[in-house]
Amino acid sequence: MSICKYCGNEAGDGEFCRSCGAKNPVEAVTPQRMTADDYRQLENQKTYTDDQSKQGSYEQPNKFFRPQSASGLLAANIVVLVLAVLTFCNSLGVTGLAIIFSIIGIVSASRVKSAQSEMEAGSCRSGATTMLVLGIIALVIGFAVLVVLKIIGSLANGLLSLLF
After folding, report:
1. Is 132:102 a contact under the CB 8 Å cutoff?
2. pLDDT by residue (tens digit) across 6-15?
3. How far apart, in whole angstroms, are the C-alpha atoms of residue 43 and residue 65?
């Protein structure tokens, strides 16, 4: 068996390394560490498994997926959570839904960074976005209830002052 010059594992007899997927990795040299350029090159290459390389039509999943963070979604969900908690009691608990939605959004946004594939990261990102929108809607309804309650309270105080 030959050794892959990128990862140092047994490369096999195929065109691609079985461990890291590098193309033409076989050399009878001492293995070296992969550099950032090597990783970028591997990310851009189409790699196929042994059975699929004969057909040439199916792409193997990228083993070097690096998800982006969703810090903007995370921060926005935290802001909605704080506002919902601050107005929870004064809005007769209507912003409780905003609290629930924002907590789910925070969890979804934090899972984006640890996703194993682009599909999983997109799913977590869309879940966080949906929960953010639902949280904002619940927060706006809670603020509307808060304003209506304040108006009713001031009208009631004015009416009581006229009567007594």
Report:
1. yes
2. 777 777 777 7
3. 8
The three-state (H, E, C) secondary structure of 85-151, written as one string? HHHCCCCCCCCHHHHHHHHHHHHHHHHCCCCCCHHHHHHHHHHHHHHHHHHHHHHHHHHHHHHHHHH
Contact 84, 142 (CB under 8 A): yes
**Alpha-carbon distances, residue 79 vs 33, 69, 138, 139 (angstroms):** 43, 18, 13, 11
Confidence of residue 59 (pLDDT cuts 50, 70, 90): very low
**Spans of all domains in the chain:** 3-55, 71-163
Q: What is the C-alpha separation between 129 and 88, in angstroms, rounded? A: 22
DSSP symbol at 25? -
C-alpha 93: how far from chain center: 29
pLDDT digits (tens, 9 = 90+) for 101-111: 999 999 999 99
Residue 21 region by backbone torsions, left for phi larger than 0, else alpha for psi between -120 and 50, else beta: left
